[in-house]
Amino acid sequence: MFRRLALPPLGKPPIVFAVLVGGLLPIAIAVGVVLQVSAEKISPAMMLLVQAGAAAVSLAIVLPMWRREAAFDGKHLRVKATYYTRQAALPEFDLAAARVVDLREHTEFKPVLKTNGFSVPGLQAGHFRLRDKRAAFCLVTDPARVLCLPHADGRLWMLSLTHPQAVLDILRRAAA
Question: What is the DSSP letter of 36?
């Protein structure tokens, strides 16, 4: 049975982004569309279609932000990060090389190029290239507390956790 590892809450930047994209953007589009309908430039049916599209896009951007989970069952580590899920057995990680970093100090670990990921201010989830050009699977919400786990496939798993050192100690004890 997987037990969840504590993740830090989303910070202010992703929440503000969610409010802007999930709330204010659809309202602004609605006002523009209503003005177009009142000027008889588009039909009411087209207005509904535009609003449905705006709602779908907003939901596709905002809802995945809350799908974040890291869990461990004693043998496997599973991470759910927005649209992405990865699971690996504990022996696949090089726990001797694993460490906790502050991305503000160790900028070589900073995710800079999104290769197949989800990125909004204050949240990087999915597959990225780091500043030092290594591939990484990320779930980063708090750059001050990131557990960096080297994986056998060459990727680095980067996880923002509430207590990353305690999680690393648990993983090392389980592997021993």
Answer: H
Give pTM, 2 decimals.
0.84
Q: Are 44 and 73 in contact (CB under 8 A)?
A: no
Which residues are CB-contacts of 79 (< 8 A; sequence separation ≥ 6)?
A: 69, 70, 71, 85, 86, 87, 137, 139, 157, 159
Q: d(Cα 110, Cα 104) in Å, to the nearest integer?
A: 8
pLDDT of 35 > 90? The answer is no
User: Phi/psi at 154 (nearest 5 deg)?
Assistant: 95, -15
Indicate the burial class of 24 (C-beta count within 10 angstroms; 0-12, 13-18, 19 or more). exposed
Structure tokens at 54: 């705006």
Task: Give the integer Cα–Cα distance in Å for 82 and 125.
Answer: 6
Question: Apex CA 172: angle with CA 123 and CA 124, to 5°?
Answer: 10
